[in-house]
Structures
1.
Amino acid sequence: MAAVVRTSGAATSELKKKSLVPYFLLAPGLIWLALFFVAPIITLVSTATKTPGVGIGEFVQTYRWANYLDAITGSAAQFSRSFLYATIATLLALAIAYPLAYGIAFKSGKYKNILLVLVVAPFFCSFILRTIAWKQILGQNGPLFRLLLDLHIVSDTTHLTASAPAVIIGLAYNFLPFMTLPLYGSLERIDPRVLEASGDLYANAFTTFRKVTVPLSMPGVVAGTLLTFIPATGDYVNAEILGNPSTKMIGNVINAQFLNTQDYPLAASLSFILMIIISVLVMIYIRKAGTEELV
Amino acid sequence: MAKTTRSIPPGNPGENDLLGQLENASKAFLSRRALLAGASGAAAATMMGVEGATSAHAAAAAGKTVRWANWGLYLDFDNKTKKYPTLEAFQKATGIKATYQEAIDDNDTFTAKVAPQLRLKKDIGYDIVTMTEWKAAQWVASGFVQKLDDAAVPNKKNVQASLLNRPFDVGRHYSLPWAGIIAGIAWSKSALPKGLKTLDDLFAPANKGRIEVLSEMRDTIGLIMMWQGVDISKSFTDAQFQKAVDFLQKKIKDGYIRQVKGQSYAEDLISGDAIAVIGWSGDINQLNLQNGNRFGFAVPESGGTFSTDNLMIASTSPNKAAAEALINYYYDPAVAAKVANYITYVCPVNGAKEAMAKINPKQVNNPLIFPTDAMWKNLKVFRELNPTDTAKYARIFQKAIGNG
């Protein structure tokens, strides 16, 4: 330490040079962030307080902050529906992905890599096509509905698509890989000796799972739920294709305001509010869940 | 306002030609093949003479390009050659290279995408766009289009008189009707063998959850308003409009209406998810051709809506002469009949019926291509709304269908 204080002039300038290096290294990232994150956010915020001008899609800046209030009160139903659907879909995805990831991590043996590829395989097909596929599966002449019809569980007047459950199933399905992979990552890292130790201490399989496996997989759970919940909240494809007019989510409203009514300020304020709500929820969640090992 | 925002002043073809030449010069420079094609095309044009255009005009337009944005299934298409026969013939005859794209699936969405460029006077990538009447009105009012040179479009004389004087473009100086669209009710014959005659039939309890209506406000609300006894072609009150919206909203809330969508309702008819819809005449015709006559279409007894899709030249187009040559070509009755035979929407061209007798006599008496007088009486055009009402009604409608 003392040596550093007593360094010569040449060494100091070298130190100064060194201290600039991190910024140079960060520059590409920082410029990228400024161009594609900060600048769009500024445009978004400034669009949100504009009011309609003369021509189609022309708006003038009048600093009408009430736009935000209009956005919240006008679309409260779709906001709450988005968070509700996203929460249920996230829990559903967790319920499906946890056993799946557990199985791949501990029980799959030589099939591990094939199973992992299968988890990722749907990404080779477009998001929209995958959602349309669900429309066929759940549709009136689809295999599932026909089976339920033959079993007299449903009648021909009911329908599975164009409903809230269909939207939630679509969301859970589409984001399943985002849930599975982080879970697999944390489960895979668990040292088998820890599980053995638990057994040595007379814990049965269930207690070991509850007291050892689950806590050690928490980083994966937190990462997976975030990666599912955030895009699911803003999604509009599933609600558009698998839903009905009463299951529209906030993404559909933003889409319609941008493209159908061309009310850019309303669309911008809705987008901004959505972003803020998600950020706050995520922050609270991370605080509660703890993220020491998230990265 | 409209005049000042117009980027290329109408009636100033010199400027357009200059831009066109510049663009073509640069294109020809870039692509040797395009240059060769242009030259051979020009030679062909001068030797053969040109169908639907004077050879002098064709010579002037030779070597040019024209880019056309249209809706899906809206131009005769040969499944074997994967080409558009009438468009191929046009290219051969004039030497103009035509690029055709099914780029439009929604009036609002397409306009929203290109409007910023139009305002900045930057090329939108299309010379000709095809917009439904009410949206075409906004394009004309915003100065997004160029004035058509009547001398360059002599076939304008073939356009049906009733379509020549629309309120948004009296005398048709900025637009010409591509096809007429009838919105009515359609059904799956296997599910509803008795068919539908009225909106009462459409919203019958038996169809609950299997009904779809169009996201085109003027068609869905228009049909409901007419059923409620309102003449949508004349001035009506906000309350009358609201009454129709309330009805729609109730049917959505009660689970009668499964979805509100654009042209994709056709897929749901095929899959059987929807059995009764508010839809467009030509779509149902085409579905029947492809799927073995499974669907019925009728104009409700209370009346259907009629509108047109319109060809317009974008204000940013550097290829005005070529675009006019293309537009002119499609108002030749023989060409119009070929198109109508494929797209099966209302044909706006006089003489096409006679031409149709030669290529497909079965279609001559198809009232959805050549409506009868009785049918015309039952069709109404939704009245033109001022910008304030347009925005207001659009907002009310979007809210009713869950988007706000």
Note: DSSP finds 18 helices and twelve strands in chain B.
2.
Amino acid sequence: MKKEKTKFFSTGLGQLTIPLVAIFLLVIFNLIRDPSFFGIVLGHNNDGNIVLSGNLISIINGASELAVLAMGMTLVTAACGGQDISVGAAAAIAGSVFVKVLKSGGSIGGGKVLIAFIAACVVAMLFGTFNGTLVAVFRIQPMIATLILYTCGRSIAYWINGGATPTVSSPIITAIGGFIPGIPVPTPIIIVVIVAILFKLVFHFTSLELFTQSVGINGSAARLNGINSTFIKLLSFIILGVCVAVSGSIGVSRLGLINHETLLLDIEMDTILAVAIGGNNLGGGKFRISGSIIGAYVIQMLTVTLYAMKVSSTDVKAYKAIVIILLVVIGSPVIKSRFEKLMSRFKNGRSEISAKGAGES
Amino acid sequence: MDSKMQESTLLQMRHIEKRFPGVLALHNVDFTLRKGEIHALMGENGAGKSTLIKILTGVYQMDGGVISIEGENVSIRSPQDAQNKGISTVYQEITLCPNLTVAENMFIGRESGAWIKRKDYEQRADEILKSLGIPARSTQQLGSCSLAVQQMVAIARAVDMKCKVLILDEPTSSLDDKEVNMLFDLMRDLKKQGVGIIFVTHFLEQVYEVSDRITVLRNGELVGEYLTEDLPQVELVAKMIGKELDELSALGEGEEEKESVKEVFYEAEGLSSSDAMPFDFCIHKGEVNGFTGLLGSGRSESVRAIFGADKVNGGAVKIKGEPVKITRPIDAMKHGIGYLAEDRKRDGIIAELSVRENIILALQVMNGFFKPISRSESEAFADEYIKVLNIKTASRETPVGSLSGGNQQKVILARWLLTHPDYLILDEPTRGIDVGTKLEIQKLVLKLAEEGVSVTFISSEVEEMLRTCSRLIVMRDRHIVGELKGRDLNQSQVMKTIAGGEA
Amino acid sequence: MKKDKMTRREPLTDTQLLMSITIGIFMVMYILAMILFGGGFLHAQQIFDMLNDNASLIIVSCGLTIVMIGGGIDISVGAVTSLVVMSCVLYLNNGGNIFVSILLALGIGLAFGAVHGFLISYLEIQPFIVTLAGMFFARGMTTILSVNPQKIAHEGFLKLMDAKLEIGWLGYVAKNGNKVPARIELGVIVAIVCVAVIFIVLKYVRLGRNFYAMGGNQTSALMLGINIKRTRFLSYLISGLLSGISGYVFMMHTGAGNATNAAGMEMNAIASSIIGGTLLTGGVGNVIGTFFGAMTLTTIKKIVVSSGLNDPWWQSITTGGMLCFFILLQSVVLGRRAAKKKN
């Protein structure tokens, strides 16, 4: 089964085909429906800053947390062949720590925000280590291992917050969640770009990409080539921890408050979807971070399109499900091999027959 | 006479052809099995015996040829189809479900009706187990039995299915002597009942103990069919290993005596691992030596122990006279040892990664996590080795899994050459690849030795090893039974030692 | 005769071992609760309350157990339950008939199961993604049907809802001196029937044993002549059917349709199965274990409440802790078993 899948991804545009086609179709659909859908307006917001607005901006902006998580999830998926379903809960914890440190007396300055963020990172990385240890050392499947944190993560956040939904009001936080004065692009978009660049740099300055793929594709061969697969798996969870802290902090900054129950609710499902739509094999192995980022934007664009069609926010899920099923059916190994067979029969019909004849004679 | 022949012929395979990408796995192979016969199918790695078995059991579809059972032409489409036609197989890897009971495993997939007649099955299973003398209880969870008993349960299942043809694929590799004897009694019993048994094994003594006829395959072609009593053991080994490729015999002669003056590079005393018995071994700088012996003799396990591929249990290892500890592959790599694994698919290639990534992998691991090889550098490396080793690939970014076997092997060779090892272990580097590539690899080994690299070379083809190695370590039954060099390094001596007739 | 029985006793299978551990821990926990907290725990009604509240969880967990034994996963069960509740409530409130409403519930469940099964076994798409989409679809459909909570107003159904099995001798005397008989809802009986039927299917029916074979070793199962695709399809179909039944039972318990019904039920069901000794790797598990898994989960929550830790977050933290404990315990137990066998 694995073999068939890889065969498909290794040709042509490869694994980016499906997400790109999905985006393309969504764009066409929206342009037909409402030609002004993608209009971008440069205007002033309530604070008097010059800002960009429009559906396209809100799509890219709204997908920020998802995109950041999807990048980390891609790595975990590739190395471990499974997914972390606790990212939403962990983000609630990280967000709570972020707020807790911010509110720990004194005024909120740049330094304090940085310290709060670092604290959130450390905590999220600790929880990542917990998940990673269960997966890499105890060899428990990722989904089961992370079910633990999924179950109790939001309660831990509740405990950190002391049961309340504390608010933070500071121009710095507003700037992180919205716009930095003078820059018309929403800050979360900038953060996504920074995280993506950081990933690129990590891949450039370490062998993470090669080692992760080797561990995910052929663990036995990886071991015989001296790769420490336990370390690689653990590392993938720790890196996902950082992503969790980033997206948790963005989420908190957007609202200016931490609500442990609703912060990034159900995002784990969307994250896994983004990874899958991005053409990454959920069974591990070869991956492309860019695919997952595009996958995140596909999901968000789909959601915004549905909103624009006056579908209520609660009903969106049903339509999303249909689109997802269509995408995975098209990408399914069986459909793919049927299609390939059909094509090759069409192409090589003649040569095959003659070869058969020669074999029998 | 002719009609009588027809009658007793149970299974006939004629002109079987099977092609895999880049390799002709079987070419014009005939095989005949008679009623009430134990027929040994012999051949070294890559000889095509497992391909032949897989065609017979419906796992592979043949590209050409005819199969007939009791005179009727048949086509075998799937493992289930084979079972329905009376062909049962017991594989070396147990194909039963460890989480079910023995009785369930014996009857699953062939009962009728929706309900499980548990008591009924258990009673029948107990009867069969008892009559075959298998030490298992029907109510036992299969996973709690030893591998040997699991194997016998699989045979019991096949026996109860009233099979006409029973294929035993390496059934004895995990059994001890007592169990082997039990199995043989069972086989003789079945033979009396008229079952035709195809016996695949690499234990020569067992072949002579139990089989009536032997068919030998080599390099995907039929060598011949012989009555066991007419074929002496040494001749069998000769037929399996073969004398071919005379054109190559000029390679690398007269180099043997130099090594004695060179320093010892690697030295092991009493080295043992979870899979290898304790053994002593040493190799000099620039020496090419080889482990020989039949499959399963422990030759691969020994070199794996040197590389730290399995759990190392004990022994003292010295490199250039300095005591070192090698417990993991990375330790061996840091000491300049490279290892090309026997099972290319499982332990060698990272199929979905590109040729380039596969080539730089080992060097990258040695360089460390924080010192990645830059893209341009790795491209240069890949291009260089694609050229040097003449790797046939569409581009350096082609996934290595789509290359032919020989080219995959070259990619892995390139991977280790790139680390500039002092000592390279090549376990079956020529297995399942075409003749031209085999020759290239042999030449390369000799060139490396000239450059001062020590090489341990393992091959199922003795010819190949005689051409390349200056010293051969012969193994049988997991122990080193001889060491040949100089004048002793000739085919008949090697075969005598392998077959157990060493002076 | 007696001796013969003694010699025939087999060591526990993995399934039995894990199940026994769960039942043992459940017993110990419950007895400890009786000693430490007394009160409610001493009445039989406590057990019945736990059953009344969790009947539908037990039913979906059974379906999930089958899927997990076969080596798959179904995370749509909670959402399908919720959709069934909403559909049936709306149907009944618009003058529907009880019998047809039952068919509707089963039909919705089967439809989801069939689509999941088809996509997973015949198109070989990853079960997680398929059932995730199923979950989204069911949740979305629920809110499309109605965003607002719908209270049931069908008279016949209300009677059905109120029908309770009363057992006098298991009752207790309340503080005011009245004798209160033990009350069991109809849903509990449905749940127990489901557990019993599936237990029998898994143990005595060919299909059930094929689930184990498929989860134990898929290649072997294929070699042994089992139709893997059909078996896998049926596992999801049964899970869907049970989600349908669970929805109806849920409705009989709450009497209202709400978009947030059965929220998080899929994870509770997974947790019940795991605690009950089902391995996600497949081939090991048992519905009796799952039943006790669900009960263990509930007992923990009750104990937490009885300890005076009223904050809801304590419940999920202890649940998480419990899960962690069981997962590690199973990993260690099975690991030691494997190591022992090797030697």
Note: Residues 44-262 of chain C form one domain.
